[in-house]
Amino acid sequence: MNLNELTITQASAGLKSRKFSSVELTQACLNRIAERNEKINAFITVCDELALGEAKKADEMIARGVGGPLTGIPFAVKDAICTAGVRSTGAAKILDNYIAPYDATVIRKIREQGGVLIGKNNCDTFGHGSSNENSMYGPVKNPHDLTKVAGGSSGGSAAAVADNMCIYAIAEDTGGSIRYPASLCGVVGLRPSFGRNSRYGIMPMASSFDTVGPITKSVADTALVMQTMAGSDPKDATSVTAPVPEYSQELTKPIAGLRVGVPQEYFAASGMDKEVADLTKAKISALEKLGCKIVEVSLPYTKYAIAVYYILVPSEDSSNLARLDGIRYGVRASEKDLYDIYCQSRAAGFPEEVKRRILIGTYALSAGYYDAYYKKAAKVRTLIIKDFTEAFKEVDVLITPTSPFPAFGLGEKANDPLALYLADVMVGPAAVAGIPAISVPAGKTKSGLPVGVQIIGSRLNESVVLRVGHALSLRA
Q: What are the structural domain ranges in the chain?
């Protein structure tokens, strides 16, 4: 096995036993990026010199016996997350020259432990998309089939991990942006509960939805990353003060006796691919064999989750993106009139999908339509949260497909925005409710495309979500 193919657990053990150095591990990842990135387009920025410098410092830390499980491990970061001294574009031309002066809190925690930042991943611009075709730096391609999408918006992060360009990645999930590409690329992706991880330093898309979490090669790796990055942050008033469990220790607890809910509405979704349904049912059977009790449940408001999402999120978008005007930072159009600077900077700096969502959000927030759209959507969001609350009185976790279909062709849905929005039908509800959900590989279709299964838990109950996901991954 090549060094860049290792998991965090394997790489950390190898570094501690001095089988190889962090410099060697990092160089192996950089070599893979040099070999494959031109084809996959998973990275916007690669930090060769910085990474090797951080790797050398990590080797010194390991020699002194200090650090943690992420010390010396090369990781990548979605480009919508700020990294000190490294270009952070959000995959938008309006921020093409923006170099963040600070680290996002979650990145700071990892780098302080000796994590090695290897580069910034391509993504749908500011997280707007489900296929990673909305980046202003070109689409990300699926490592399993270069004619297919990687999923979005964190497609670059999922593709980089799946293709062994890095050991793990830190990404952001607003409506499914970690879980969906993780499913399509055959890796593990966790959306933590809203507030479990700090949002400070994350380029805001929809502030009441945004979460940051890991994309990894195993559930055990996800637990290790979460132990480092989770926790309250005085710089983020929405972060929770609840103590961070030792997720790694929780993984090995038995799952026999757990009640696993199967939501009727998810399996009744139109457009469900038969192979996806079959692979998901196989995982449900595996859980039953492990001693779990399978319970059929109903989440009647699930069908409204996408409609709610695409009213509330664009509304928050239109407010958050107002700060990008070409004046204070970023790329500025060469116009003399102030109004023209605003207009031309935003026209050239935002792709069509971002403009579409700004327009939708501004319309939904306008005086004549606020009550009809935004206010009503906010009320239905409460009903969706109540749906999950009632379900978790009967079950410990829910299991669903992550995506109704495997990766589709590049450009296949490009001219049908509604079809792309509906791709989030499985991952959107948990995001609306602010609860934790993980996508783990469930197998592959006959054509070799990965399929993911989603485990959803109650708020701040990441431990049980990880336990069930880990047990399923061991049954692969």
A: 1-476
State residue 45's pLDDT score.
Answer: 98
233-266 b/e with 16+ CB inside 10 Å = b? Answer: beebeebbeeebbebbeebeeebeebebbbbebb
Give me the CATH topology for the region 1-476: Amidase signature (AS) enzymes (3.90.1300)
- Region 166-170: mean pLDDT is 98
Rounded to an integer, the average pLDDT of 191-213 is 97
Are residues 330 and 97 in contact, defined by beta-carbon separation less than 8 angstroms?
yes
pLDDT, tens digit (0-9, with 9 covering 90-100), for 114-166: 999 999 999 999 999 999 999 999 999 999 999 999 999 999 999 999 999 99
pLDDT band of residue 416 (cuts 50, 70, 90) is confident
Active site residues: 78, 153, 177
- Long-range pairs for 410-418 at CB < 8 Å and ≥24 separation? 410/133, 410/139, 410/141, 410/147, 410/148, 410/149, 411/133, 412/149, 413/131, 414/131, 414/133, 417/353, 417/356
Q: For residues 114 and 72, what is the distance between their CA atoms, to the nearest angstrom?
A: 6
Give the gyration radius of the chain's Cα atoms.
21
Q: How far apart are CA 377 and CA 139, in angstroms?
A: 32
Whether residue 380 contacts residue 265, with contact meaning beta carbons closer than 8 Å, is answered with no
User: What does the alpha-carbon distance between residue 223 and residue 376 come to, in Å, rounded to a whole number?
Assistant: 37
Q: Is the pLDDT of residue 402 over 60?
A: yes
The Cα-based distances of 58 to 50, 114, 138, 162, 250 in angstroms read: 12, 5, 33, 24, 28
Q: Identify the CA nearest to 79 among candidates 169, 186, 184.
A: 169
